[in-house]
Amino acid sequence: MKPLIALRSVAPLLLTGILVALVQGSLPDYWYFVLVVAGINIILAVSLNIVNGFTGQFSIGHAGFMAVGAYTAAKIVMSTRGLVSTGAGEQLVFLGALAAGMVTAAIAGFLVGMPSLRLRGDYLAIVTLGFNEIIRVIIENSEFLGQATGISGLPKLTTLAYVGMAAAITVMVAVRLLQSTHGRALLAIREDEVAAEAMGVDTTGYKVRAFVIAAALAGLAGGLLVFYLQLCTPKSFTFIKSIEVVAMIVLGGLGSVSGAFLTAAVLTILLETLRGFSEYRMVVYSLLLIFFMLGRPAGLFGTREIWDLLPRWRRKAAAGGAP
C-alpha cells in the first residue's frame, strides 16, 4: 500500500514530465510560447486561490509578489553571468535564483500579511492593492533595478519543462494543503471566521501562512516569466495583471484547484487565439467573461473539484468501496 501511496504522490510530476517530453520538440514557436504563458498563469491562479479561495480573503496584489521574486532572480543571475561558464552551472544558478526569489517573495508576503490580514474583505483588498503599487513605484524609481526600463538582456533559461514541473508542484502543494489539517482550518475560516476563532483556530496565523505560501509561488511564477521574455520590467507586474489572475480564480470557482487550473489555461489560450480580431480582441474577451458569470455566477466548479463531478460509483470504486 505504501508504494502505491508514494506513486500517487509523484504521479502528477511523472505525467507532466511525460507530456512535456512528448510535445516539447514538435511544437511551433507560437504554441510553445502560449503553453509557457498558460503554465505561468496556472501557477499564479492556483497560488492566489490558496488565499482567496481557501481562506475567503480578497487579495488583489499578487503581481507585487511576482515582481519581488522576478527582480530577485534577475539580479542574482545577472550578477553571476561572468562567473559561470558552463551550461550546467548556469542552470544551477538559475534554479538557485528562482529559489531565492521564492524566499524573498515569501518574506514580502509575511511582512504584508502579518499586519493586514487582521483586516477582512474590502479593507484587505485595498491594502494589497496599495502594496502592489508601492512595489511598482519603488522599482520605477530605483536605478539599481533599472527604473522604468527594467533589466534587459536576461538569458532565456525558462523552458516548457521547467514551467510544467513548477505548475505540477504548485497544484500538488495546493491539493495537499487543502486535504491537510491546515486546509481544514483555512476552510473553517472561509465559512465563518468568528466561529472558527471561537473554536480555538488561530485565524490570523493560518491566514498569514496561506499568504506566505501564495506569495512564494507567485515569486516563482515571476522568475519563470522574466527569464522567458528575457526582460524584467515593472510593466509586467501592474494592477491589471493582478486583476487578470483574480478573474481566473473567480471564473474557475473560489476554492476549486482544478477550476483555477482549467480557467487559467483556457483563458490564456483563448486570449491568444483572439489576436486575429486585433482591436476587438479585448471586447470579445470581456463579453465572454460577462456571459460566463451571468450563466455561472459561482464559477465553473464552485467550491468543488473536477473529480467530485464523476459518477458516484466511480468515486466509490476509487475509494475502495463497492460500486
List the helices and strands and how they pair.
Elements: H1 2-23, H2 29-54, H3 62-79, H4 87-116, H5 122-140, E1 151-152, H6 160-179, H7 181-191, H8 193-198, H9 203-229, E2 231-232, H10 239-252, H11 257-273, H12 281-295, H13 312-319
Antiparallel strand pairs: 1-2
Order of helices and strands: HHHHHEHHHHEHHHH
Put simply, the count of helices is 13
Number of strands: 2
* Largest sheet: spatial strand order: 1-2
Question: Which percent band covers the strand fraction?
Answer: under 5%
**Count of discrete domains:** 1
The helix-and-strand class reads: mainly alpha
Computed CA radius of gyration, to the nearest angstrom: 20 Å
**Helix coverage percent:** over 70%
- The poorly predicted ranges are none
Overall pLDDT score: 83
**Span of the ends, CA to CA:** 21 Å
Global shape: globular
Main sheet makeup:
2 strands, antiparallel
In short:
72% of the residues lie in helices and 1% in strands.
